[in-house]
Write a structure and sequence with these properties.
Layout: E1 2-6, H1 9-21, E2 26-30, H2 37-51, E3 54-57, H3 61-68, E4 80-84, E5 90-95, H4 101-112, E6 115-117, H5 121-124, E7 140-141, H6 147-156, E8 160-163, E9 177-178, E10 183-187, E11 197-201, E12 205-211, H7 217-231, E13 238-244, H8 251-260, E14 263-267, H9 269-272, H10 282-288, H11 294-305, E15 308-317, E16 321-329, E17 332-338, H12 349-357, E18 360-364, H13 365-371, E19 380-384, H14 389-401, E20 405-410, H15 420-426, E21 431-436, H16 441-449, E22 450-451, E23 457-461, H17 469-481, E24 485-489, H18 499-508, E25 516-521, E26 529-534, E27 547-551, E28 557-559, E29 562-564
Parallel strand pairs: 1-2, 1-3, 3-4, 5-6, 8-9, 8-10, 10-11, 12-13, 13-14, 17-20, 17-21, 18-19, 18-20, 22-29, 23-24
Antiparallel strand pairs: 4-5, 7-11, 12-16, 15-16, 24-27, 25-26, 25-27, 28-29
Helix pairs in contact: 7-8, 14-15, 17-18
Length: 572
């Protein structure tokens, strides 16, 4: 929840805009003018601090800091705070930059039109911040006191060694972070920690538990603690506790998990019975329907989170409980990112975040050039030329399958005549896939022309490199007979100069000569052009591969020089 503290009419108006823009996310703490207004503002800030995850304060930075300073405890758990000035010119990330304030300042800029002010050093240098490194994967910093020294070394270019990160889809760190260095960053779920290193605890362990009915929390907890200690494993890296669904209400197991801050996940006995384990039990099979609870639960749950798992501690017993520990093999991550039609301000914030979250970028060379300045130092770029789409898709999936964080980029929306479909044909269950939407060329072209896509419409590619012309022709004819507005992609090249006239001829059999036709070349780029003509007057030779062609339905028309397709409703 975001607490918004407003003391003036202007602040209250801005708070209302935020509440409208982010429904369900905002609680407004208003303060009206009075002799005690300063006190009431302070009370609002303190209440927001207690009750919210983040705070937007329409107060001067100094005023907010004076109230909040006595409440500060730990930047990892304190609410993020952004201050916005009365004139709505700046959104200043004051507290918790890497724990929500920086992205909140960006979100405020999008709603209020103010400029985000971010002062954290890593963000100014476009370097992955260490205090949130791997946080979205469940990583935690074991020894936060080492962050400042190691972070300063990373930013200043000193050699820093990184160990244990292989196989985790982590963001890029600068080139000076490698295999050697006096300072070290270690990713480990082992309990023993070397002196003088910055340690991250990955969320890599699953504890499986079985028990007799009525087991106490003390017995179950002591067995788990002893097992982790025996294996030399850190409790901080336990992702969850797993058991059979018959134990979903076993209070001793639930209480032991609560005491350690762990989630409990359960699986049916039929699923656990399919898991091969080293210590099956016929007695357990007869009682619960699976030959193993602790070992099978640990393995099954760990595999559900990763691409595989290993049992690193076999079953251990007490009088009324059993436990085992599995370590998951993490899945890599593939983000398929649409960069939009070309203009930087049409690249979505989510696309920018995905690019900066990646350690590997795969894309067409000219698209990489468009966003190269957004990439983090240390990211590996795999770029290639036109005609190598399948190779890029395969490469991106292979890199993700090795446990890396990969962004496969394309123009427009990656799912529309772009890289998503070839990549997903190669992708299996061993990677996570995220689709990042982009603004398509047809949508960008439509907005330049007016509203040609106001009713039902179809996208058709005229390229016969992968689709026989007979099929394309059948689709054009069907869209013409169905009276769809049509967006033609890949309309005409030097080697394919007859398909577009053929498509126009088919459409002319079903459309009046005055049907609007829009030609938009290089939509949203500096040399964009938009031409509105008619089906009768359009010239195919004015079209190339950088052009989107939009042909209206029989109801489309030109209104004041704009291409409009009516929505088709009868207005009361």
């Amino acid at each position: 929840m975001i607490g918004v503290v407003a003391a003036t009419a202007g602040g209250r108006a801005a708070a209302a805009r935020l509440a409208d823009a982010w429904p369900g996310e905002v609680t407004v703490y208003e303060s009206h003018p009075s002799h005690e207004s300063h006190q009431s503002v302070a009370d609002g800030l303190r209440a927001a601090w207690r009750e919210c995850d983040a705070i937007v304060s329409f107060l001067a930075v100094g005023a907010a800091v004076r109230v909040l300073a006595p409440l500060l405890e730990d930047k990892a758990t304190d609410p993020a705070v952004v201050c916005v000035d009365e004139g709505l010119r700046f959104a200043v990330a004051v507290l918790g930059g890497h724990h929500g304030a920086n992205p909140l300042a960006e979100r405020l800029a999008a709603v209020l039109g103010c400029e985000p002010v971010v002062t954290t050093a890593s963000d100014r240098a476009n370097v992955t911040p260490l205090d949130s490194y791997g946080a979205d994967l469940g990583f935690g910093v074991h020894n936060r006191e080492s962050l400042a020294r190691v972070g300063a070394a990373v930013l200043s270019g000193e050699p820093v060694a990184l160990e244990g990160a292989d196989g985790w889809p982590l963001p890029a760190l600068p080139p000076n972070v490698g295999t050697d260095g006096a300072l070290r960053i270690v990713v480990t779920d082992r309990a023993e920690v070397p002196d003088g290193v910055l340690v991250y605890r990955p969320s890599s362990l699953v504890v499986g538990v079985g028990s007799a009915r009525g087991v106490s929390a003390e017995e179950a907890g002591a067995l788990i603690d002893a097992a982790l200690d025996e294996a030399g494993l850190a409790a901080e890296s336990v992702r969850c506790l797993a058991t059979v669904d018959l134990k979903a209400d076993e209070e001793g197991i639930l209480a032991a998990a609560r005491a350690r801050g762990w989630e409990v996940v359960t699986h049916p006995a039929s699923a656990l019975a399919e898991v091969d384990v080293p210590n099956p039990s016929d007695v357990v099979r007869a009682e619960v329907g699976t030959a193993s609870v602790a070992e099978a639960s640990a393995l099954h749950a760990a595999r559900s989170f990763g691409r595989d798992a290993q049992l690193i501690l076999q079953k251990r017993k007490s009088a009324n409980a059993t436990t085992a520990v599995a370590r998951l093999v993490p899945k890599g991550k593939l983000s398929i990112v649409g960069l939009g039609p070309g203009a930087r301000d049409l690249v979505t914030p989510r696309a920018v975040a995905a690019l900066q979250r990646a350690s590997v970028i795969v894309g067409l060379d000219q698209y990489v050039d468009q966003i190269r300045d957004l990439l983090r130092p240390g990211v590996r770029v795999l770029e290639s030329g036109l005609g190598q789409e399948e190779e890029r898709a395969r490469t991106a999936v292979e890199e993700a399958s090795r446990g890396r964080a990969v962004a496969l980029i394309g123009s427009g929306d990656a799912g529309v005549y772009a890289m998503a479909s070839p990549a997903l044909e190669f992708a299996s269950y061993d990677i996570e896939v995220e689709g990042v939407p982009g603004i398509t060329a047809a949508v960008a072209a439509s907005n330049l022309l007016g509203a040609p896509l106001g009713h039902d419409h179809a996208y058709i590619s005229l390229s016969d490199l992968h689709t026989p012309w007979e099929i394309i022709e059948r689709r054009v004819r069907a869209a013409a007979e169905g009276d769809f507005t049509i967006s033609f992609y890949n309309p005409r090249s030097r080697a394919r100069d007859w398909q577009l006239p053929a498509a126009f001829k088919i459409l002319a059999e079903h459309r009046p000569p005055a049907t609007p036709v829009g030609l938009v070349r290089n939509a949203s780029r500096p040399d964009e052009t938009a031409t509105l003509t008619t089906l009768e007057a359009v010239r195919a030779e004015d079209v190339d591969m950088f052009t989107v062609v939009l042909v209206g339905s029989s109801r489309s028309r030109a209104v004041a020089g704009r291409f409009v397709t009516p929505r088709g409703y009868r207005w009361a």
